[in-house]
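Data availability (excerpt). The following record was deposited with the supplementary files.
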Amino acid sequence: MSEFTVGESDFLLDGRPVRLLSGALHYFRVHEGHWRHRLEMLRAMGLNCVETYVPWNLHQPGPGRYRDVRAVGRFLDAARAAGLWAIVRPGPYICAEWENGGLPHWVTGEPGTRARTRDERFLFHVRNWFHRLLHEIVPRQIDRGGPVIMVQVENEYGSYGSDADYLEQLAGLLRVKGVTVPLFTSDGPEDHMLTGGSLPGVLATVNFGSHARAAFETLRRHRPEGPLMCMEFWCGWFDHWGGEHVVRDPDEAAGALREILECGASVNLYMAHGGTSFGGWAGANRGGGELHAGPLEPDVTSYDYDAPVDEYGRPTEKFRRLREVLAAYHPGPLPEPPSPPAPLGAPADVVLTAWAPLGDVLEALGGEETVTPVPPTFEELGVARGLVRYEVGVPGPRRPYPLTVRGLRDLAVVYVDGERAGVLTEDEPRLKEPVAGPARVELWVESLGRVTYGPRSGEAKGITGGVLHERQYLHGVRARGLDLDAFDDGVEVVPFGTPPGDGAPGLYRGTVTVGGAGDARLELPGWTRGFVWVNGFGLGRYWSVGPQRSLYVPGPVLREGENEVWVLELQEAGRGRGRPSAPGLLPVRAVRGGRTQGVDVTATPGNPSGENPVTPE
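Predicted structure:
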C-alpha cells in the first residue's frame, strides 16, 4: 500500500517527490488482446503512468442496461501488471473525439435534461452510472494496492460552462463513492477556462501543445502553489473525413516536450497511442472558429493521432525522439520496445457471396416503425449510431416543386418512387430535381457522429426540422431505425440472396481465408461509404472521401483459416475500379513495415474516390 498526495510544489509518493511521465492510451480503442503490448510500449518510451478516459455511452447503452463495465477494471489490472501508475478520467463528459463526447444519446436527448449542469435529471443519471463504474476504480486505488493515483472531475469544463455547483457536486460524488486519491481538473491555459473549470481545493492542470512556459505562467496566476502538470500535451492531432492527414514534426514535438520538463512539470502525452474508434464510435466536430457552429466535420475511424506509437502498435520516429527526451528523466536504462504484433502471413481476398438490400436488412434488424406527424429524431427512435429510413408521401396531383429537408443531420440518400434522386447534406439540403405529386419519398439518413466539443455537443441526429415540398411541410412520416448495435447478435435473420452486379447499397456477406492470422488492414477500393465487421467485430466506418484509405484489422480478431466478413454499403459499391461482381472481391493486405499502411497519409486531395488502394511497401 502507498499514499499518493499533492504537495506544495510536487507530487508525493509516500512523502517523496515524484514526477509523472504519463501517456494517454484508451482501453476502448485498443483490442484487449493488445493491451499488454501497448502498455509495454509506453514503458519502453520512458513513461511511468498511463491515462485513460471512460466513455459512459459505450458502457451504458440504455437506462439500466450496462455493457462490460468490468473492462475498466481489467485494463487497470493490466496497467499494474505492466508496472505503470494510472490516471482515470471518468467524465461524465470526456470529449476524446468520441461519439457525443462520451455522453449517452438517451441522456442528452431526454426532453428537458440539461447535460453538464447541476440539473437534477442529468445528475440522477450520473449518480447511477458512477455507482456502477466506481466499483471498478475505487478498489484499484494506490492506497489499496492498485495503480490509480488520480481521478479527474469532468473534463475541460471551462471550455463549456461555468456551473461551479455542478463541479462541486461531481467532486463530492466521487468522494462519497470512495475515491480517496487526489482529484484534479484539466482546462486550456486561458483565464476564462481556468476560472470556469477549476475548483477550490482540487488540483488544476492545463492542456496545450506548445508554449509551455506561457501556459504555466497562466496557471500560476490562478494557482500559485501545487505541482505543475500538462494533462494533455498534444504531440499529434486527429483527422476529419474529407480533410488531410495531420502530422507534427517529431523534432518539434520533442522540443515542446523538453520545454515542459525543463519547467519542472509533469506531463501526459496525448496521445501516446491513439488506437482506433472501432464500431462506428468516432465523433465529430463543428468548424467555424470559437463558436464551433460551422459545418460538421466527422472524425475518421482511425485514431492514429500521429502518435509516437502508431495505430498498429509500432514505434515511429516520434517515439524515438520523445524517448530520447524522456530517458534523461529515467533513473536507469529504458527497457527495449517489445516486438510488434505479428502481421498477417500473406495478402488475401474477401469473397462476397451474399447480399441483402437495405430494406430487408432494416426489416430483419431494425427497430419498430413509427408513424408521426413530423419526422422523429434518432434520439426519439432510440438510435445511437446507424441510420433511419424516413418515408413520406407527396400528395397529388401537383406540379413539380423543390423538395428540401430542414434540419438534416447528417446525410441522406433520397429515393423518389424507388429511384435514387440524390444525396443531401446539412449544407446541401435540397434535391437538384423538383418532385411532382403524387410521389413516395424515402430518405435513408445516416449519423456521421455526434459533436464531441463545444456548444453544439449533444445535438440531435436525423431530420430535426421537417421535409418540405415547396414551402409546405409533408406530414404523416413513417420512420424506422437501424442501430449498429443490432449487428452484435449476428446477421443470421437477414434474408440474403445473390450479390447484384450494379453495386447497389445493402449488406454484403462473405469470407476471407487467411494463413498466419495477425494484424492486417482491409482495403475497399471502389466502395463509397459504410461499415465493416470481421467475425462479428466492428472495424468502423469507411468512406471514399479520405484521407483514411483502409481499416485496421487487429490480429486477435482474425483466426487461421476462414473468417466471416460483412460490409454494409450505404450508398454505392463499385465506383471505378474495384466494382464488386458476383462474387465480389475485397483485398486484405498484410502489414509489413512502413508508417503509412493503416492510413494512406500520402493520398492526394485530388483523388478522393479511394480507387487507388494502399499496397505493402
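Summary of structural features: Residues 359-485 form a domain with the Jelly Rolls fold (CATH 2.60.120.260).
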